[in-house]
Design brief:
Elements lengths: L1 E10 L3 E8 L4 E8 L12 E2 L1 H21 L3 E11 L5 E3 L9 E2 L7 H11 L8 H11 L1 H4 L4 E3 L1 H10 L3 E3 H5 L4 E2 L4 E2 L1 H12 L10 H4 L2 E3 L10 H7 L11 E2 H8 L7 E6 L3 E6 L11 E5 L5 E7 L4 H13 L4 H14 L8 E3 L17 E3 L8 H19 L1 H5 L6 E5 L9 H8 L3 E4 L6 H16 L6 H6 L5 E5 L3 H19 L1 H10 L1
Parallel strand pairs: 1-5, 5-13, 9-12, 14-20, 20-21
Antiparallel strand pairs: 1-2, 2-3, 4-7, 6-8, 10-11, 14-15, 15-17, 16-17, 18-19, 21-22
């Protein structure tokens, strides 16, 4: 049975996945492929081989076909969408192949270059940004840099393999270099500033201007190329299938959560936490807690990212679970109901969740997670676990203060990630942020589905449909499975606890010094 639909491809850090949807965006089946990091590198070095992504894509397509075959479905792909881990550095030489393994978003070798470009550009350049990686490469691997004719990202490389072109969705492009909201292209002044910094590097004479190396920027619905002979052979599909502009995982996740309206915030709570806020204008200046990129249609996105997510709460749950001799799943079944039943003020407990460093909060070292206020009445598993989760929520609120200071709208939070396995926990976020929190029906999320949505939008544009990106996403919305309105009494309690949390974070340096001295 032939089924027309859309193929979504996601190149993640841990592996690659593909999905095939029907024309109504129902997922018919999925496929997966694996790869790993390049072994034997120093701890701060995180690299993968682009050829491994290609092999994983072929394997994932084989997996998808086997599953569809068991359902007696013959897929007929109308368009292809691609998403991938942002901020990577894929260096392509004149022969059209990568010159070396790709450095990934989690590679930590260029923190100094990030700080330097932040000062030069007067906008935050996190060490993850490709521009910071490229400046480091010029300075430390000049011979390799001299042979580069193109730089792209993991998603951009797969798009090149499939189409032969070097284009990139504006969201992923914004993770390479700052975007000018007036032109919706790379910021020309900052490109000139980058080249001036590069010119002061003694080994830079052999390197091309950065603009000549970057992919062409495309927005959702625009031309991302078509499947050529090489791409058709890799996927086992006919040539000529349209490909949507390849996007980063964060913009694709926004698409997968059907978020496009300014004032809507996508929050994902897991071992790390991300809050992506759709802006109505560009952010001004630098805030250490806020990164910037773009949605697939070019709207500015302000991102607050926390390394310390639910890890501290999970550790507490696991600790109490071990005392009962239960496994981790049973521990959550035991402790989470106690967390939900605990009083709003956690019995007077207050926590810091810093199991690891937290750059956005100025915390440079982990191992300083703590709970204060313990006494005979407050020392319960529910109180401690709730205090740890609230501490993470408060860190996220603290990181969002820079947006509040510039009066960016915050109308609604759409929640995803592991925390949605216990939907009632969303109430704490609604109370702490004073904003309604929504969990989508069916927990529809995921970057691969977002990539498939972008494929459908490209297909509709080719068919002459002229709806804008926001209206297109709204047309795929379903009713919220759960909606949590803020409770005024709890919000007042959390405001008081939040003020104390900020005072604790402010003296964290003293705590850290005391720990190191010991």
């Amino acid at each position: 049975m032939k089924k027309q639909g859309y193929l979504g491809i996601d190149i993640g850090t841990q592996g690659l996945s593909v999905i095939f949807t029907d024309e109504a965006m129902r997922i018919l089946s999925t496929g997966n492929g694996d790869y790993s990091m390049v072994p034997g590198l120093p701890a701060e070095c995180q690299e993968q081989r682009p050829a491994d992504w290609e092999q994983a894509l072929a394997a994932a397509m084989g997996d998808l076909r086997r599953k569809l075959g068991s359902l007696e479905i013959d897929m007929e792909v109308r368009a292809i969408g691609i998403s991938g881990q942002m901020h990577g550095e894929v260096l392509v030489g004149s022969a059209g192949v990568p010159l070396a393994p790709a450095r990934l978003w989690c590679d930590g070798r260029n923190e100094a270059e990030g700080h330097e470009l932040t000062t030069v550009f007067d906008t935050k350049v996190p060490k993850r940004m490709t521009a910071a990686r490229w400046l480091w490469t010029i300075r430390h691997q000049s011979e390799k840099a001299s042979r580069v004719v193109r730089i792209t990202t993991p998603a951009g490389w797969i798009a090149h393999v499939l189409t032969g072109g070097f284009t990139l969705g504006i969201g992923d492009a914004a993770g390479m270099f700052p975007i000018d909201q007036a032109t919706l292209d790379y910021d020309a002044k900052r490109l000139a500033d980058f080249d001036a910094v590069m010119a002061r590097t003694s080994k830079a004479a052999v390197v091309k201007p950065l603009r000549d190396l970057l992919p062409e920027v495309r927005r959702a619905g625009e031309d991302g190329g078509v499947l050529d002979a090489r791409g058709a052979a890799l996927l086992g599909l006919p040539q000529g299938i349209p490909v949507a502009p390849a996007e980063g995982d964060q913009p694709a996740a926004l698409a997968g959560s059907l978020i496009a309206e300014a004032g809507t915030v996508s929050m994902s709570f897991g071992t790390s936490v991300v809050a992506n806020s759709v802006g109505d204008r560009a952010f001004k200046g630098v805030d250490r807690a806020i990164d910037h990129f773009c949605a697939p249609d070019g709207k500015p996105i302000n991102m607050v990212w926390l390394r310390n997510g639910t890890t501290a709460m999970n550790a507490v749950v696991e600790m109490f679970g071990k005392t009962t001799g239960r496994g981790l799943g049973d521990a959550f079944a035991l402790v989470i109901p106690l967390l939900l039943a605990a009083p709003d003020d956690c019995g007077g407990l207050q926590a810091l969740p810093f199991m690891d460093d937290e750059p956005g909060a100025g915390v440079s070292r982990g191992g300083t997670s703590l709970v204060i206020g313990l006494n005979e009445q407050s020392a319960t598993p529910g109180n401690v676990a709730r205090a740890m989760l609230l501490a993470t929520i408060f860190n996220l609120r603290m990181g969002s203060e820079g947006l509040d200071a510039q009066s960016f709208p915050r109308k609604e939070i759409v929640l995803s990630g592991g925390i949605t396995k216990t939907p009632e926990l969303a109430q704490l976020i609604a109370d702490a942020f004073h904003v309604p929190v929504v969990i989508l029906a069916g927990a529809v999320e995921g970057t691969a589905w977002g990539a498939a949505l972008m494929a459908k939008f490209r297909d509709e544009r080719l068919l002459g449909k002229r709806s804008d990106w926001q209206s297109f996403l709204a047309g795929h919305a379903t009713e919220a499975a759960r909606r949590f309105e803020p409770r005024s009494s709890a919000a007042t309690t959390y405001d008081r606890m939040y003020a104390r949390h900020k005072r604790l974070v402010a003296i964290h340096g003293q705590l850290d010094a005391a720990v190191v001295a010991g």
